Amino acid sequence: MLIILDRDGVINAYEDGDYICRPEDWIPLPGSIEAIARLSRAGHKVAVATNQSGVGRGFYTEQTLAVMHDRLRELVQRSGGQIDHVAWCPHLPSEGCDCRKPGTGLLVQIRDALALDTLDGSWLVGDSRTDLEAGQKAGCQLALVRTGNGRNTEEGLKMAPLGTVDVFNSLSEFANAILQRTD
Fold this sequence. Notes:
Rossmann fold; 6 strands
């Protein structure tokens, strides 16, 4: 099974409006790296889909972003797992691209990079409504984590539901649930 993760607020510490501009500011949330490794070791494909408008705004470069993603891959590998693909969008919200979530372009990139026919049955794990909307449009099962912006998103979903969204306290809790279902 494919599991697509948002990055900021799901894998690493993040609060809405903050930009992680330097590799030393990219700090994994407790248990997130091990959760990814456990999912990978269990045979799941794990990909990351992340909006990174800080590149388009000139806050950091593509090279700096690559260093952050290399660190993510290295930490997951050290824990015995792997990230199968990282897709990211550098565009500003005003540019109207199809890759920026809630568009599905990043998810299509992942599907194509992993040579999948469909994303049906895959999971999209996010902390924001835009993450969930992208996953819904692409046919993914939806999981919201309460880290990052997740608690605010959960409150918003009460007023404007999206359909079935499983809610977890963290990526680690999501991994536990998925691994129990597939044992």
